[in-house]
């Protein structure tokens, strides 16, 4: 880990992750939604006071040789300096970078959004108040043309309601035995979904998940419902509900929303989940060959990056399938704190159809975060450690490091796949 930190310190990756914290203060105006006066970042730290006159003084000093004298005089004058309070950006997080916020705003205000530019911005994190709009656009659920957007969303939401009425809101006598079994399995899995977040224990939330998952499974008979897909619906639900519920997710009550808004959120979750899974259908078909392929690629990648740890794992008899299968099946949702999942999914969604390939590099970076620790463990302890990785105190910084290493290794190996063949 120390080697990776030394290697990556201060390095930027074009269009991706920049892990050096900004030294300059943020522009306060960029931290507010154009349609709201409230602060739009939920990731800010304690407020600090910034002298608004400082920037003007610096610009004068660059053009006026005598400005240093003027600055000294102004510092001793009786004029009271102006201050404004703005949230501080947490180190390692770029979602609230003022320059990037301006780029997001400019791109989204266009009549036709250029999706490639939006993906490049989203890769490094999306501001929370823009995330619902950005995700809909990048996933192709909402059209890039703003004139058509509202009409398309309305039509797709009505189409979802028709599907629910046709497949879900029917008596069991009209279902096949396989469909009844699948619905029961979904009903069992929904209460188990993200158990450490109380919001998902609400009965109405679980019913919404049940409708989304069952409708998706019926309309995708090649895979049907597979355990783990229930986890994949949760980031979408939280992001789209954030347009209607404020404050901490721990205080959210979906029952406070009218039925129409709940229905719209469900529809958005359904269609975005569908778009996400379109690029990884064979991950959830019989025997899940897509995931098995990723597990094999992960092992070969680790062999190239850190052969000693692979050799140690093989000597202890630990198979990658024993832990990496769950990682790929749930896209690491169960391995990191839920409040970091949305940042991780910004990158997932920005990757688009290339996501399955990039998942291998993210998983390798995630695993090798604990190289030194794993080298010291024998089989039983290693299994227990990997099943309960110490990520509960992770912040954006640790996640950005994982993504940065993944991007670096992807740049090194993806164009030369033969390097991964032993």
TrEMBL record:
Start and end residues of each stretch annotated as Disordered: 37-97
Segments of skewed composition (Low complexity): 62-78
Compositional bias annotation for Polar residues: 37-47
PROSITE patterns linked to this entry: TBC_RABGAP
Gene3D superfamilies in alphabetical order: putative rabgap domain of human tbc1 domain family member 14 like domains (1.10.8.270), Ypt/Rab-GAP domain of gyp1p, domain 1 (1.10.10.750), Ypt/Rab-GAP domain of gyp1p, domain 3 (1.10.472.80)
Rab-GAP TBC domain mapped to chain residues: 125-352
Regions of compositional bias (Acidic residues) in chain numbering: 49-58
InterPro entries: Rab-GAP-TBC_dom, Rab-GAP_TBC_sf
GO molecular function, one term: GTPase activator activity
Coiled coil: none
PANTHER family: LD44506P, TBC1 DOMAIN FAMILY MEMBER GTPASE-ACTIVATING PROTEIN
UniProt protein name: Rab-GAP TBC domain-containing protein
Record lineage: Eukaryota, Viridiplantae, Streptophyta, Embryophyta, Tracheophyta
């Amino acid at each position: 880990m120390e080697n990776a930190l030394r290697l990556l310190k201060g390095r930027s990756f074009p269009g991706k992750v920049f892990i050096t914290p900004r030294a300059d203060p943020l522009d306060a105006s960029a931290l507010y939604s154009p349609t709201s006066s409230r602060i739009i970042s939920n990731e800010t730290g304690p407020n600090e006071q910034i002298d608004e006159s400082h920037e003007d003084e610096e610009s004068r000093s660059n053009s006026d040789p005598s400005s240093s004298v003027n600055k000294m005089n102004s510092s001793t004058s009786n004029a009271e300096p102006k201050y404004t309070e703005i949230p501080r950006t947490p180190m390692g997080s770029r979602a609230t970078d003022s320059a990037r916020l301006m780029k997001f705003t400019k791109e989204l205000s266009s009549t036709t959004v250029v999706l490639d530019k939006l993906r490049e911005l989203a890769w490094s994190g999306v501001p929370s108040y823009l995330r619902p709009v950005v995700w809909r656009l990048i996933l192709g659920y909402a059209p890039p043309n703003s004139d058509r957007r509202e009409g398309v969303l309305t039509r797709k939401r009505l189409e979802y309601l028709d599907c629910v009425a046709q497949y879900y809101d029917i008596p069991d006598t009209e279902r096949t035995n396989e469909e009844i079994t699948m619905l029961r399995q979904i009903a069992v899995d929904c209460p188990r979904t993200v158990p450490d977040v109380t919001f998902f224990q609400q009965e109405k939330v679980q019913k919404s998940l049940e409708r989304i998952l069952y409708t998706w499974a019926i309309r995708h008979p090649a895979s049907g419902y597979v355990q783990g897909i229930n986890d994949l619906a949760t980031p979408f639900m939280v992001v789209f509900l954030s347009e209607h519920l404020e404050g901490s997710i721990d205080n959210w009550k979906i029952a406070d929303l009218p039925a129409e808004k709940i229905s719209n959120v469900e529809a958005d979750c359904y269609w975005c989940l569908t778009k996400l899974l379109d690029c990884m259908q064979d991950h959830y078909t019989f025997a899940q060959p897509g995931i098995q392929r990723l597990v094999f690629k992960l092992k070969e990648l680790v062999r190239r990056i850190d052969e000693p740890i692979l050799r140690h794992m093989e000597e202890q008899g630990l198979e990658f399938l024993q832990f990496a299968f769950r990682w790929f099946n749930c896209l690491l949702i169960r391995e990191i704190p839920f409040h970091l999942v949305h940042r991780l999914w910004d990158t997932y969604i920005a990757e688009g159809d290339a996501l399955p390939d990039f998942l291998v590099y993210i998983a390798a970076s995630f695993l090798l975060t604990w190289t030194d620790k794993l080298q010291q463990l024998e089989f039983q302890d290693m299994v227990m450690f990997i099943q309960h990785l110490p990520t509960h105190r992770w912040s954006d910084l640790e996640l950005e490091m994982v993504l940065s290493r993944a991007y670096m290794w992807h740049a090194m190996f993806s164009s030369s796949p033969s390097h991964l063949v032993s």
